[in-house]
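Weekly sync notes, structure subgroup
Attendees: PM, AL, DS (notes)

Item 1: joint prediction request from the bench team. They want all two components modeled as one assembly rather than separately. Inputs as received:
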Amino acid sequence: MTTVAPSRARRIADLVGRARELGIVVALALVIIPTAFVNPRFVEAQGIRDLLLNASVVAVLAAGQTLVVVTRNVDLSVGSTLGLSAFLTAQTFADHPDTPIVLGLLVGVGVGLVCGVVNGLLVAVGRVPSLVVTLGTLYVFRGVDFALAQGTQINASNLPDELLDLGNGRLFGVPVLVLITLAVVAAAALYLRSYRSGRDLYAIGSNPEAAVLAGIPVPRRVFTAFLLSGAVAGLAGALWVARYGTVDAAAGTGLELQVVAAVVVGGVAIFGGSGTVVGAALGALLLGTIASCLVVLRIPAFWQQAISGALLIGAITVDRLLALRLARELRGRSDHDA
Amino acid sequence: MLERFARWETALVALLVLVAVVGQIRTGGAFLDGGNLFYLGLDIGEVALIALPLTLVVVSGEIDLSVASVLGLSSAVIGELWDAGWTLEAILPTVIVLGAVCGAVNGLLVTRLGLPSLAVTIGTLALYRGLALVVLGDRAVADFPSSFTDFGTTPVPGTWLPWPILLCAVLAVAFAVILHSSSFGRSVYAIGSNEEGARFSGIRVKRVKLTLFVLTGAMSALAGIVYTFRFSSARADNGVGLELAVVAAVLLGGVSIFGGRGTLGGVLAGVLLLGGLRNVLILDDVSTEILTVVTGLLLLVSVLAPALTARVRTSSTGRRSP
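Output from the run, pasted for the record:
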């Protein structure tokens, strides 16, 4: 009967996994429908576009963060990486207005890559816990950002129109920024789902020692995860410039909390080893939607942070209870078989 | 093992002396001036107060990132209750109890549900700060009587010692006795070194950890009171980001992030070193941005140095743990 238990385990695990994404969709409906009754414009085309736009930067960051969290690590420096990349991207455009848009975006990605390399080296080679490393680099990157900016601000008037079009334009009625977000989420999801090195990230997060014994180059894979998270945060910085047009050294301060909350609410286990990029992106959409609903329902915006925190704790609690239930279920099953 | 620790703390004290000497030279004698030491003391008061219980939490192998948010929440509640006409004699104990409740929530989530303290306290970092904003919004309450704010702005008569540092010193002795000379303290080390082993040797692991989180919450609220009186201002965003300074001080003080190792003396040296360095840089007109970078770098160095020395040690002796 040994073959039955694993297949049943997989069925239950799959159900739990799918239940999470379904759960977020239900939660989305629960917040959107009452809000739509209060203000029908909330669910018109423009309202939906705004919802997606507001969630897009966090969703991009959440896609990168997922790669790190499934390896049982965390990257708290993404908000600062975004800020540094946003400022340097904007400065590039302000100093050289003729810079092609793609090159400008690459500047952002490049800045993010450098930040990711620093984190990755410290975690993978220095063997220092990622929590501490990225808490440190959170402040270092932000400090560098402030030192470079020297209190200046770059405004939309200093930026090329093509860039701002990217942030506010549409393609077939869908905002370009949302399309870019979907592309990043799809790419990260494909990488984690179907590529060997992507699968390795799950193996590392489930059991680091076993991953080493299975011949997975653990330090290299963890380094890659931080590298990708940094690059994605860098891209998000460039998109931030395109979306908001105004950048100072404080851009994206505190964003890491929203990102970690989105990832965890989206069903990525903070112990590593499970969760999907799509779930994380849905988590970002849910948190963004709640923020928008508060505005429509005229609830003071002060509630937003408390709600994200409560959702994060609620999500890990539910995950934990489900995991305990699952473990008990499986144990009961194998006892019967034995 | 003991030798290495002695060395880490010796290095910290040497660094402290170095900072003091360099500071004294760079500022033309202004660093060790009584007036400056008073401000240095004020500046590190809250960090020191929170670092005391957090040391125990980290030694037990856990972490609490919500401390600065508890500080902010207690400050916001002080403001709101004062506005509502409560007396400070009634407000202050209430706020300490509130802090203990915040800590108990962290502790119960960690011990009863078995959740990782990192994730729990990132959540409550957002939750408690959010509640502070809900309580006080973006208002500031500033009309506290000077009989109370003097506590945060004047020295103990006849000295340059700020009142909060005197409070800290008394509590530091209490915490040092708890951690280093009581069976409770030994059980904290035992839990941090080997939780399972500790459980099998009859230590009530959950109860010890819960106690530590409650203590941390209460001390963070106390730091919130000190912070509020020091600036004579209750605001919801008081102490945003202070958790970094506290965690940096604890790790710089030689406490292992993996638990089981570290001393309170080392942590106090870490607090002084960070505060002293900040103070020298400020006297030297270095911008606050550079201060942020320096704090972050010190945090990185303090965890990287032990990790690298441990690796050099194992590779040079050729011994590897199985």
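Discussion: Residues 4-38 of chain A form the longest helix (35 residues).
Action: AL to compare against the crosslinking data before next sync.
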